[in-house]
Amino acid sequence: MAKWCTHRFDVEIDPQTEVLPSIGSQEGTGHLPLTILNPQSIALLPDTGYSS
Questions:
Q1: pTM of whole model > 0.90?
Q2: Euclidean distance between CA atoms 21 and 1, whole angstroms
Q3: pLDDT computed for residue 50 by the predictor
Q4: Rounded to the nearest 10 degrees, how much is the dihedral formed by the CA atoms of 33, 39, 42, 43?
Q5: What is the pLDDT of residue 51?
Q6: From the CB of residue 27, how many other CB atoms can be counted at a distance below 10 Å?
Q7: What is the pLDDT of residues 1-50, one digit of tens each?
Q8: C-beta separation of 46 from 26 below 8 A
Q9: Quick one: pLDDT at residue 49?
Q10: What region does 46 belong to: left with phi over 0, alpha with psi -120 to 50, or beta?
Q11: What span, in angstroms and rounded, lies between the C-alpha atoms of 26 and 50?
């Protein structure tokens, strides 16, 4: 994915720290808050009925 982004968009991406493979979009959106919150932040997440 990192190589494709470099080839397609001319953007350097570190595959070790900037790429997260997931099973699908719901899993990705479930992990999104963890990527944008600060370590000291608190977040409330709704229960989707099943875990990502």
A1: no
A2: 9
A3: 63
A4: 10
A5: 62
A6: 14
A7: 999 999 999 999 999 999 888 888 888 887 888 788 888 888 887 776 66
A8: no
A9: 65
A10: beta
A11: 11
Separation between Cα atoms, residue 3 and residue 17, nearest integer Å:
14
Q: Which residue has the higher pLDDT, 29 or 51?
A: 29
Tokens representing 27?
A: 């899993």
Residue type at 51 in one-letter notation: S
15 HSE (CA, 13 A, CB side) = 7
Q: What is the DSSP string of 1-52?
A: -HHHHHHHH-----TTTS----SSHHHHHHHHHHHHS-TT--------SS--
